Amino acid sequence: xxxxxxxxxxxxxxxxxxxLRQRLAGPARAGTPEExxxxxVALHGTDPATVYLAxxxxxxxxxxxxxxxxxxxxxxxxxxxxxxxxxxxxxxxTDLTAVVHASTGLAVAARERAALLKHMATAGAPDxxxxxxxxESTLAALARRGQATAAELAQDEPRLREQFVYAAGKSYxxxxxxxxxxxxxxxxxxxxxxxRPLGSWTSSQFRWxxxxxxxxxxxxxxxxxxxRRWLAVCGPxxxxxxxxxxxxxVTEVRRALAAIAAEAVTLDEGTxxxxxxxxxxxxTPDEPWAALLPGLDPTAMGWQQRDWYLTxxxxxxxxxxxxxxxxxxxxxxxxxxxxxxxxxxxxxWRILDAEGVxxxxxxxxxxxxxxxxxxxxxxxxxxxxxxxxxxxxxxx
Length: 396
What we know:
Radius of gyration: 22 Å
Helix content: 40-55%
Strand order of the largest sheet: 1-11-12-10
Organism: Streptomyces violarus
Protein name: Winged helix DNA-binding domain-containing protein
Order of helices and strands: EHHEHHEEHHEHEEHEEHEHHEEEHEEEHH
Strand content: 15-25%
């Protein structure tokens, strides 16, 4: 993983890398959603609005955000929403789905199917052979329909409506429907993917579609490829960052680092890693830049150790209790505040860390707010995971 003296990469250079490679500085912005997703490796998809807001923040012409992102997701299928790292829903470039599935999905899929069979058996529900029949029938129905909701699929396969009691006698006892659990398992296994939503681009109710076919890859090779792509965008990163982002065991992280000949560098936190040949200095953006990024944005959530771009004192206001970041305001590579959209459509923001945030910065942030308002229009946008500052600003 590199020999000789380790080069030191300081905070200023890390912020410069972030600005350019995360498509946030003005000249680095992209022309299409595919370029954005390809540059970032993955867009958080747990909150559907995040995908569009993250893309719009990085497009040269944000007016095309909704139409072009919808085209990529649901017409060209050049982007796919699927489970990935840490069992989280992301949007990936379609050509990366095989890598994600092999590197992170297979292990999670095995656990999910085993858990479903265990819960069904405990509840006295039908066995694995029965579930296999339902699964095959469901996939055949989905192939015929192209896209469908769980309710529509249940018209073709009525057994999807059957229910079983989960955790009987426990405080968290509940009733699960076969369709809900089975489609989730099939999604993690890479057999189905989320299709077009029932409502607008902010809707969290999706149809299902047969997942794009992809080759089965060697797990270790897929992990090496995923790590190589991520380090090219987000490096340098510590081993702790890599383990957190991928959700892998530390042995898998180290194996992948060795496989791609990653180079060790020195960071303020200790040893970090960059992709092979990427340790040389990068230029600072010619102009200072501002950005309004959505909750769960991949830049704000990209590293576990965030002190180099986020003052720890800001976390209680900008994160929820589960560690999900809310809408954030950026100035020159660091988080300086947060923003929200009120019910009347106004974008409001607040500076929490005023160091270095003068008149130029505030004017640039206001321009970004106007830019965002321009393409979002009248659409109501409320983060799925609400944070203290966002709720306060939204309430007015």
